[in-house]
Amino acid sequence: MVALCHPSLHLFFYPSSNFRSSFYSPYKTPISLPKLCASLIAREEVPEAEEPPLPSSLRGVDRKPSSIPEGAVTPLSVDFNAWYLDVIAKAELADYGPVRGTMVIRPYGYAIWEAIQEYLNAKFKETGHSNMYFPQFIPYSFIEKEASHVEGFSPELAVVTIGGGKELEEKLVVRPTSETIVNHMFTQWIQSYRDLPIMINQWANVTRWEMRTKPFIRTLEFLWQEGHTAHATAEEAEKEALQMIDVYKKFAYEQAAIPVIAGRKSKAETFAGASCTYTIEAMMGDRKALQAGTSHNLGQNFSRAFETQFTDENGERQHVWQTSWAISTRFVGGIIMTHGDDTGLMLPPRLAPIQVVIVPIWKKGNERIGVLSTAASVEQILKSAEIKVKIDNSEQRTPGWKFNFWEMKGVPVRIEIGPRDVANGSVVVSRRDVPGKLGKDLGISMEPSVLIAHVKSTLEDVQASLLQRATLFRDRNIVDVSSYEELKEAISEGKWARGPWSASDVEEQKVKEETGATIRCFPFDQPEGSKVCFMTGNPAEEVAIFARSY
Amino acid sequence: MVALCHPSLHLFFYPSSNFRSSFYSPYKTPISLPKLCASLIAREEVPEAEEPPLPSSLRGVDRKPSSIPEGAVTPLSVDFNAWYLDVIAKAELADYGPVRGTMVIRPYGYAIWEAIQEYLNAKFKETGHSNMYFPQFIPYSFIEKEASHVEGFSPELAVVTIGGGKELEEKLVVRPTSETIVNHMFTQWIQSYRDLPIMINQWANVTRWEMRTKPFIRTLEFLWQEGHTAHATAEEAEKEALQMIDVYKKFAYEQAAIPVIAGRKSKAETFAGASCTYTIEAMMGDRKALQAGTSHNLGQNFSRAFETQFTDENGERQHVWQTSWAISTRFVGGIIMTHGDDTGLMLPPRLAPIQVVIVPIWKKGNERIGVLSTAASVEQILKSAEIKVKIDNSEQRTPGWKFNFWEMKGVPVRIEIGPRDVANGSVVVSRRDVPGKLGKDLGISMEPSVLIAHVKSTLEDVQASLLQRATLFRDRNIVDVSSYEELKEAISEGKWARGPWSASDVEEQKVKEETGATIRCFPFDQPEGSKVCFMTGNPAEEVAIFARSY
């Protein structure tokens, strides 16, 4: 395995041109900067090597390429797509289902989704939403009721035509999203303003018959949550749509360590049936954009199509104002493609199913019992502090194999315990994000309070470091453009282009056809001062971000 | 609303004939018997009344029938099915979906399912299982691979024939259960004995095209968990299948307060594709049986059909031994039909989304602020003890309306706070399961430690009381039979019949045709001594339980 440096690490230390990097980082997670930067700079100074750093060379652990489990991944810089698929296979995140475009989410990949669910589910409840469940079969006629909705979704539908051995009178759509059936029910539940707001969410599977699929990113069936709300006023609905995109943004920054850019979609990119779509856009390791979560202000589009009305305080009948918002298993793909490296997956500690792996190391038979029992007591110490810890004491594999395997799985922290550690009452703590000696803390006492404090602070450091790296990478790869030529150049280099835009849908389409880039969003954070559209020379109110995307 | 006494309460105090009631209650949850029995007996002694008891008559709360929210439910004794559907509608548990036989699970009903999930999910992980997710679309050909599986499921399939606007080459089944696709994947993941056991679970929706549907009990689409395991030996698989039915049984007793009978299915009632099915059978309020959870020993049936093989320690190729096990949203229906009464739903505290509702009561405007602020501080006190509490301080409804509403919703404990309570620093605590004065504790101090202890102990009393009532009801309605005539009589009275059985499948079918009853199970708990089959007069090894069922 050839462990190349991250292809764009050298970009981290050049200052951004027009925008300070902090300008687009509204969530300033407290970061212990001196320590972090030291490790980053130190990493930067390591000369590029043909051989991977051997973090355990001190103790003679075999890390030769031949000991790598089931072969290495394709280097990220050589073929990003092949690297992505290799990581998914070798870290045992997912597998292909028997039907084209479907995916089996394996336990380790599903555990990341469970961590996402746990956080978001609590936030949804805190913000006043209740979970419920709508059937997945929707009468075909429902989809046709909202004009732009049917236009957007009809090419992607899976249709049930046979039930219980008989041809069905009305074909049933397997839900691609639930706005239509939700409105059908809301119409029955809502009579007066006293019934409002309704604020609900469901965790469910959805089906979209996609032609080009990719595990996690775009699959025929995927898992998601979809929130649906109904309000008495346009203002309330707008406030809700903005609140939920903010919940997503905080989640991305604080849990996934992904510095997304939040903003508004252009008309062309708005959800089929929405008045306005808000989005969080993430930059992947290949610098393509990933739409990682959306929140729609649906206006009265669905309530007019389904006659979802209420009697207001003055006794007048009005259509409700609605929102919907979703995050899906696609986000797991976003985590892989944001943080992974040539060694494999790299997980943010707050979402990692395993935060610490303990690898016991012994050579002579008489060392075995002491090492294993010490490892078990370290495991108990960390468990008592609610750290997610796993001990790998299988005897079929060498320590070197285990190091590689758990690095591939992206476990943020490894604890090594050998006979000398047992004698000294100390352990070695290694960070997944900093290879080699630099990422190792030797001689950490096993005294519970010391060990727990050290491990917790290391996990926080890794969490902050991942966000900082990703933020630096993002900001180095956004180019401010003031002409179409500059945009074309930035896009051709694989970067994102940001510039003032007030041109037409036709011109937006032209950019897409000529460069492959679309407007990802008009970011909420806008530079001050007057602006001139880079395409038309007319005044512009906002900058837009253009990029190629997944 | 006419609140009749539970139709079978009078049956509680007659001793069972051959079997002591404790014989079939292996989970002897500690119950504070003297107090409980006192309340039961006291309830028993209340003469049947045309009018409901007025638990709040002391304070002049209006409980006249006219104040009942959206009308009362059909009395349980008049029409059990209508009562069930009324409770589901009025307690806002579920609604009908637009497609025949589908159900929308509303927030309150879904919250019960979430409580079930929370408990079981933790137990599955404790017993070594990981969650994952398999696609719901299964190639039609998979279903046909296991002979008895296709026979059992093909009449119930929903089939997708169109995807992305085109007729599909191979039709896709919307999963009715996942054994086939699970085995397809296991075959790829399992090579050697080192890969075993595999122990996984998924929370998912499944589809069965049922002709006669009923909310929660039998719907076209339902939610469930399905566990799937693969083992190297027959013994391990058998142990696993038994372990999981025991997890379900403990859940039913300890969380849902449902005294299920666990046992083995007859051959005719075994899951399509299993070697052996274990079940927990619950007696509903109308004395029909509900199959509330099953665990299957699949033997090598699916591994032979899908060639799921491993190399054992001797280098020999063997087929794996498997299990699968499931509990579904049907269980919510079981809770409703076990504990509900003419006042509505009655929830076991451990699964209740709201354990305590606080109803503030005031008449004069100057009492309002004091009552509301006291209610809010009581709410905070209970929240601090992790009691699930809700305060109903809406001003659009009277206290009487609220009493009825939250009783309909089955909230186990109500706290009433009026101006006199504020002055005295005390509250009134009322139990949902004991109507009238007998269920009321007056003058409970608001001092946090006193109040918390009192509420917690009341919740535990309600939990234990529900299990005790249901157990007494069950045992009074199981008749030990020693002839077919006795069985016919018991079944015609709506009871369960239990008797020694060693007759043939043909004779089992005859019983079904002539009485409507099926063998629910051969219970694990068997009476001692030699037995004679009540049908044939031949020796019998076991007693079987016969009943009409859902």
From TrEMBL, chains A, B:
InterPro entries from the UniProt entry: aa-tRNA-synt_IIb (IPR002314), aa-tRNA-synth_II (IPR006195), aa-tRNA-synth_II/BPL/LPL (IPR045864), Anticodon-bd (IPR004154), Anticodon-bd_dom_sf (IPR036621), Pro-tRNA-ligase_IIa (IPR002316), Pro-tRNA-ligase_IIa_arc-type (IPR004499), Pro-tRNA_ligase_II_C (IPR016061)
Any Pfam family: HGTP_anticodon
All copies of domain Aminoacyl-transfer RNA synthetases class-II family profile, residue ranges: 100-348
MF terms (GO), sorted A to Z: ATP binding; proline-tRNA ligase activity
Alphabetically ordered keywords of this record: Aminoacyl-tRNA synthetase, ATP-binding, Ligase, Nucleotide-binding
Catalyzed chemical reaction(s): tRNA(Pro) + L-proline + ATP = L-prolyl-tRNA(Pro) + AMP + diphosphate
Keyword check for Nucleotide-binding: yes
The EC number(s) this enzyme carries: 6.1.1.15
Alphabetical GO biological process terms: prolyl-tRNA aminoacylation
GO CC, any one term: aminoacyl-tRNA synthetase multienzyme complex
Protein name (record): proline--tRNA ligase
